Amino acid sequence: MSSKKEQAKTHKLALRGSSKIVSEFFEYSINTILFQRGVYPAEDFSAVKKYGLTMMVSADDQVKAYIKKIMTQLKDWMYGSKISSLVVVITSKETGENVERWQFDVNIYGKSSKSKSSKKSTDKENSSGDATAEAEPEKTDQEIQQEIQALFRQITASVSFLPMLDADCTFNVLVYADADSEVPAEWGDSDAREIKNGEKVKLRPFSTSNHKVETIVSYRLAE
């Protein structure tokens, strides 16, 4: 019979494995959004195989360095069960207006988040809701991959209803993390960067045995 200590160790390893899956998903999500929404030219991306799909990732040194810096910190927070949301905001360079906002909410099964959070970004944002969820049945790696694959197909298909981004745009990544999270000096406070008078579309979720990720894209209606 397993001791409680062994069970706790097994759970910790499972949670870490699940955190790695979600972190990788975030990294490919950021790249996919930048490519699909034309934030950078298509020639600045290279194709890689992931989730049984051809994924486009940035080959631009500055963008790669920025995403790497985000992911290094993000993985620490994920492994520590500190994150409740990651947000990718697309902003017009000309007007400074936020034109599109992709929010990925993270629920950790069995975690009750009672500590309040602040908002940060590197843009980073720190904030947290009550991320309590019922335990999910065990899932195979293939089942998880199929759910992630379906979500990426939906993100790609979203160009059919999202307005064209005519002007030059830039992007920022915001993270909602628990208030007691250690925050690197280069990460600053941020507001939520909501889309004023925007439309919202909820995409399909995916889940592991430890996490559930729900996606909402908000966008400004074309005038």
From TrEMBL:
<protein>
    <submittedName>
        <fullName>HORMA domain-containing protein</fullName>
    </submittedName>
</protein>
<keyword id="KW-0132">Cell division</keyword>
<dbReference type="InterPro" id="IPR003511">
    <property type="entry name" value="HORMA_dom"/>
</dbReference>
<feature type="domain" description="HORMA">
    <location>
        <begin position="16"/>
        <end position="217"/>
    </location>
</feature>
<feature type="region of interest" description="Disordered">
    <location>
        <begin position="112"/>
        <end position="143"/>
    </location>
</feature>
<dbReference type="GO" id="GO:0007094">
    <property type="term" value="P:mitotic spindle assembly checkpoint signaling"/>
</dbReference>
<dbReference type="GO" id="GO:0000776">
    <property type="term" value="C:kinetochore"/>
</dbReference>
<keyword id="KW-0539">Nucleus</keyword>
<dbReference type="GO" id="GO:0005654">
    <property type="term" value="C:nucleoplasm"/>
</dbReference>
<dbReference type="GO" id="GO:0033597">
    <property type="term" value="C:mitotic checkpoint complex"/>
</dbReference>
<dbReference type="GO" id="GO:0005737">
    <property type="term" value="C:cytoplasm"/>
</dbReference>
<dbReference type="GO" id="GO:0051301">
    <property type="term" value="P:cell division"/>
</dbReference>
<dbReference type="Pfam" id="PF02301">
    <property type="entry name" value="HORMA"/>
</dbReference>
<dbReference type="InterPro" id="IPR036570">
    <property type="entry name" value="HORMA_dom_sf"/>
</dbReference>
<comment type="similarity">
    <text>Belongs to the MAD2 family.</text>
</comment>
<keyword id="KW-0498">Mitosis</keyword>
<keyword id="KW-0131">Cell cycle</keyword>
<dbReference type="InterPro" id="IPR045091">
    <property type="entry name" value="Mad2-like"/>
</dbReference>
